[in-house]
Amino acid sequence: MKKIFLLLALPLLAQAQKIDKIITRSETERIETYLASDELAGRKPFTPGIEKAAQFISAEFEKAGLQKTNGSYLQSFPMYQSKVLSVAGGLDEQTLESKQVAIISKEATIQIDEKSGFEVASIKEGENFGQNAYRLMSAKKPTIAFLHESFAKYIPRLSGRGPLRENQATIIFVVANTIPTKFKVSATQQVEKLQLSNVVGILPGKSRPNEYVIFSGHYDHLGIGKPVAGDSIYNGANDDAAGTTAVMMLAKYYAKKRNNQRTLIFAAFTAEESGGHGSVYFSKQFNPDQVMAMFNLEMIGTESKWGKNSAYITGYEKSSMGEILKKNLVGSPFTFYPDPYLDQNLFYRSDNATLAELGVPAHTISTSKMDSEPNYHKASDEIQTLDPDNMTEIIKAIAKSATSIISGQDTPSRVDTTKLK
After folding, report:
1. pTM for the complete prediction?
2. Domain Peptidase M28: where (predicted)?
């Protein structure tokens, strides 16, 4: 029995020795430290900080020897930035105040009433605001949504939602406890057409070049906000400089090995925090039937609820991908678990969602304790709060667990789109 176990363990041992020389703590820490530095000022879209981050990621992809697309690692696309200048109107017999309204639109002038043909929706007291607001903001038809006054505190956040897509439908949120019989909203906006960029590198497959495996994370964050204890920079060390670092380290690892049978695509997405715009644009560049798997890496810089050498996979039950990853880690100390935070709806809240909704086995890997993460979306999300040793081991585990998928030996089952949401 000892001899049989030794024979089974030898390939895993040899793989571990090779991976330890490529995915190192020092290299992981070097990349993470820069992405989470004050120099990048929180990597908010349309700022110099996110431009510097994109240049840095591109340079690292260049050093690794990844291929470009159309002569560049930058996958650029148009977006719109809008700023409300004035709001007026009424609800039944009451005057509408600007603080009651949030507008998501790329239109310079908005004039609507109950006869304008807008879809009418509401979010009632006690309902899940996050889930309902996300659904409404993704609506394809112009919509006006009336929010219970208990959600009035979210109006500033909705108003500052960020860049808008080319096909963005006008969505208007209004604080009102009931849906009025008559309403009127008039607004003017300053609208500017700008560009955002994902950073994408490619490692062509040897025998299955038209079958793709994607490794992704988002490199944007919240930028500069209200000072807390004198610190106004939201560095986003865990969210998601950690995931982006993992993507870059995996790119270096697979580029060194160059034995991938399927084509590997490494993507750092922009504007995840303001609507997932980068991953939405990215997903439209592919025939989803050719994407065999997507590893989306989000907030892996801290220990999971199970401690070291562990992480969870969102939407675990929606495909066989999790079971394949676990199989490839037999004999190692690392364990993948199903997402324990189902009430947080994480499967639909990250950059895996767009491709998953098209049937791709696209899942997010994370360690974030979403019921108690102390630095989530705070200025305190800095590199000092991370565990670089554990983070490095997580990246190694992802590399090992993906082995049979990138070789073509295993293909995860597709997500059943009829059972989503």
Report:
1. 0.87
2. 198-400
